């Protein structure tokens, strides 16, 4: 997994490439924590995300809770079919914003 | 035990297996081992990704809990069935007896604030695989998943 986090003022875009699993989820969490403070917009670009396991879902849930607490708008973009199905069966589609 | 395996299918080939120390770092070794077998079967990419997620969840659980705070070995075995084509992946460890299928499914209707993450991995495996079974036999936790491909 590689992560490309870009910050433009209060807008943060985090691109995730590869797999978010038990091994890589801690790095994903670190990237979120390093960028979420002061952000008014947080976008996860999942165009090149192969799949996400529950370890990564935990990070997304943590991110959404922090965003809610800080009036930050969080959304996921370019979600592929495999990842979308994982979000659907775990009920994450109802708590995350996806475009 | 949530879903039973069908009895009509026949096992065609010899199973292959890999035994490694049950650590999070070794998930990649196991994933690569499984993917090599799946690619030889021309497994569709979506099914392969779902199986990879299942491997992460199940081997990850063994790595985190089976021998905690010690470590120990885990064996992962893959079998292929034909008519219909399916793979059966078996995870074995001789750590603490634990049936991951015995816990209640998480409530996936709760809001982000109320949501708990525990049990989500196994729930995801149950939702994406065609069969999941657990037994404790001869001092071993034996968890099997089956995926039609």
Question: What does this 3D model show about the protein?
Answer:
The complex is a heterodimer of chains A (99) and B (149). By secondary structure, chain A is α/β, with parallel strands linked by helices. Chain A has a single domain, classed as STAS domain (Transcription Regulator spoIIAA, 2-Layer Sandwich). Helix content of chain A is 36%, strand content 31%. Chain A has three helices and five strands. Chain A has helices at 25-35, 54-69, 81-89, and strands at residues 2-8, 11-20, 41-45, 49-52, 73-77. In chain A, strands 1, 2, 3, 4 and 5 form a five-stranded mixed sheet that branches. In chain A, helix 1 packs parallel to helix 2 (54-69). Chain A is globular and about 30 Å long. Chain B has one domain (10-148): Histidine kinase-like ATPase, C-terminal domain (Heat Shock Protein 90, 2-Layer Sandwich), CATH 3.30.565.10. In chain B, strand 5 (131-137) and strand 6 form a beta hairpin. The longest helix of chain B has 22 residues, at 45-66. Chain B is globular. In chain B, helix 1 (27-40) runs antiparallel to helix 2 (45-66). Chain B has helices spanning 27-40, 45-66, 120-128, and strands at residues 10-11, 16-21, 73-82, 86-93, 131-137, 140-148. By secondary structure, chain B is α+β, with helices and mostly antiparallel strands. At the A-B interface, strand 4, helix 2 and helix 3 of A face helix 2 and helix 3 of B.
List keywords for this structure.
heterodimer, A: alpha/beta, Transcription Regulator spoIIAA, 5 strands, B: 149 residues, alpha+beta, six-stranded antiparallel beta sheet, 6 strands, 30% helix, 28% strand, globular
**Quick one: how many beta strands of chain B?**
6
Order of helices and strands of chain A: EEHEEHEH
Which geometry of chain A do the CA atoms define? globular
CATH superfamily of chain A: STAS domain
Give the terminus-to-terminus CA distance of chain B: 22 Å
Q: Can you tell me the CATH class of chain A?
A: Alpha Beta
Q: Which residue ranges of chain A are poorly predicted, with pLDDT under 50 across at least 5 consecutive positions?
A: none
Q: List the total number of helices of chain A.
A: 3
